[in-house]
Amino acid sequence: MPPTAAPPDPTELTRIQAELEGAEPLAILGWAYERFGSVAIVASFQAESCALIDMATRLAPAERVRVITLDTGWLPPETHALIARMRERYHVPIAVWRPDPAAVDRMEADHGRALFRRSVALRRLCCEVRKQAPLARALQGTEAWITGLRRDQAPSRCDTPVVEADLANGGIAKIAPLVRWTAAQVDAYLERCDVPRHPLYAHGYTSIGCAPCTRATRPGEDPRAGRWWWEVGEPKECGLHPSHPARRPAAAETAA
Ligand code: SF4
Prior knowledge:
alpha/beta; Rossmann fold; six-stranded mixed sheet; 37% helix; globular; binds iron/sulfur cluster
């Protein structure tokens, strides 16, 4: 594994953020592969990450399209099948990162296997052990990571920047090429480019994560309503993405 790369200068990221705000996903991804030597797409294998993998293979040689995925131990079998299908289709390296077994054993000995149903705090602990900690390890030596976040996915994602410093992972660049796209635009891309699609969408799922924490949604429900659906009033986030809610004007701005 290469040594940890120096994070980019925050002022550069602020400038680039402004420059790329109106850019199309391919242009944003193209900038990322030109600017950084070590780029990783962090994929959940929902529609967005499949679109990004397809786009990346149009911009960079397959060996540079490094994909990281987090196998929490609770993924539905359909996700594992799609990972195999994407490997076969694109011939890109997909590294599967798993949680530290000792940390999982400790957590489950203390709180039980289904701790995520007991309280929000324990659900967050499970996400921390099974997702955040493996991601931090997976990103060692990476200069920039790509995420499929879109602003209209959730109130907590309204102001997601195109590029930001990921302070939870040493200040490396975190890039969201699809921020301005809608779900319909992503779907149209998959259709147009014949990109494989997660089978659970055909069963009413509109957001897909770990099996025990995800259910299909009903017509009219928020697309992320099926994630941790028993929690009330909590942001539908697992901790990989800090909230970027719509910025409220400061009192002075409101008064002006
Ligand atoms: S989504 Fe559920 S099972 Fe998956 S890591 Fe978070 S709490 Fe644990």
